[in-house]
Every structure is written in structure tokens, then in C-alpha cells.
């Protein structure tokens, strides 16, 4: 575990480098947990989840383009906006996974990198903040619109006939785009709140704990709590009107209603876990930074086995929770894809593909059977011609 960097009798850990007679953590190898397994779980879960999510997002966008008349209609277009947010976030994660340390490390020294974050680090910080808050806004406004249609159907129909929906849609879109911007501007211009590396190994940069809480976690908490309350009221109202939770009732929800409810529920599960994880991270961020600084100072003048305790850092780290968050993120586009797809059309395409495959196999089978017959007939003809020649 020990590595001697230079002379002067100072021995640094293998994930530290000696700079000006001081051992500093290496940006490309320092990890906040001593367990290699935990780091690998986080890295591979991120890679697998982002690959799955990107696949679902691409398919969802392709289907959305094909069914543009339905998906670009109000308010279904809000679901498409959520797909775009997830796609942007996943693409940034995939790019980061390709060259993680080259994109996030501005120096060999992690301490120097923390003082001068890279442009990509700032970009990833903006991306994660903007997309998460944006998704929460799209989800909340969609639930609110659904609430209005279920509880006030006559007024909703009147708004639609009068053409007021386009003004509602314009207002929702402008608010969702503009509301996250002030915090982004503050974090990019104020050095105290700048986006920086917060986890090791790095996946996405973020602002410091208090700014992160007030600009992202708290707004998401409020939007999520309000949306869940509205959704419960909607479900209760639908239960009273249609008895869709009553097994003895013959009244059933339409396929479209089931699909939109599934989208709401999937985002609720993903949102609940993500907000819980983010809240826990924000609550321990100051403690984590203090423990990290204490550990770096302890290792600064050389590594002595058993002297520097990184147990506090490891206790605060939650790689398994991060892995679960990535997995849930990969499943979220699947719910959106279910909302977009027309399963009857998919079934018809599947049946056509199966029939075409059967025809091809049948043709190949007949072709294989005909080849020996042709060969035997040619052989018989050659024998007859030889006999006649004799």
C-alpha cells in the first residue's frame, strides 16, 4: 500500500503524490472508500444504468417523432420534455465515463483540482442541477394539469374550447425553463458556490452543501410533496367516480389513463428515493468535507500505517444508495416509453416479424430439401447419358 515518491524520507500512500515535500491526494486515483469493491459497484452500476437509460431514451424519442401528432399535443408533450431531460443527463454521464479523470482533473493533485475545477466539471454541475429541477417542474405541472382535468372537467373542457390551453402550456414551459436559471448563474459567477468535485471517484460535479440544498434539494422536496398530495387527491377522486380500485366494479380506466398514472407512479418512486438520497448527502456534506480535510492533513507529511483514520469518510459514503439511484434512473425512461408506445401496433409488428421469420425458415428448409433432389436427378441423367454413349 505504500509508495515512496522521491527522497527526503517521506513515504506517501499509493493514491497520494508528493508535491513540494507534501503528500497530496491524486485526482486520478483517490477514492473515498478503501474498499475497491464499493468503488467498482458505483462505477459499473453507473455505466450499466446509463447505457440502459440511453437506449430507452433513444427508442422513446424515435417513437415520439413517429407519433408526433399525439406526443406534441398538450399536455402529453410534458412527458417528452422529461425524456429530453433524462437523455441530456445520461449523455453527460456517458461522456464522463469515457474519460472520467481527463475531464474532471485539472491537475495531478486533487487539492489543486478542487481549487480550479475544469470546464466540463462546471458543465456537468449545471446539467445535473438543471435537469433534475426541470424534471421535477415538468412532473409537478403535469400532475397539476391532470388534477384540474379530473376535479374540474367542465372547466377544463371549456378552457380547451376557448383555446386557453395554449396559454397555460406557454406559461408552464416558460416557468420550467426560467426558474432553475438564477441558481445556475449564481453558482457559475460566485466562487463560494462554484460547481466542484464532491465525490471520489467523480461522476458529476455539484455546488457546496448549503447552496445545493436551497437551490436543488429543497425546491425538489416542495414540488415532490405538493405533487404527491395532488396525485393522492386525484386518485381518491377517481376512485369515488369510477371505483377503479374496487374489484367488484365493472368501470375500468382507459389505457391512456393507466399509462399516465404509471408514468406518475414511476417518477414518484424515482423522485422519492433520489430526494431522500440527495437530502442525506446534503445533511452530511459539511461533516464529510471536514473529515476529508482532516484526513488529507494527516497524510500530508507521510503515510504511517494505522495513524490516519478514514473510517469517518467511509461511514458517510453511500455507494450502494448511489447504485440504486442509477438503476431507478435507468427504469424511468421505460415508463415513459410505455406511455408513448401503442402496444397494439407493436403487437402487429411483432406478429408480422414472426410470420416473416417463419416464411424465411420455411423457404430455406424447402431449398435445402430440393438441393439433394436436383443433385440426384443430375447424377441419374449423367449415368443415362454415359450408358447411351457406350
UniProtKB/TrEMBL annotation:
Keyword Transmembrane helix belongs to the record: yes
Signal sequence region: none
Transmembrane portions of the chain: 41-65, 77-98, 127-147, 167-193, 213-238, 259-277, 320-341
Keyword entries, A-Z: Membrane, Transmembrane, Transmembrane helix
Name the UniProt record assigns to this protein: Uncharacterized protein
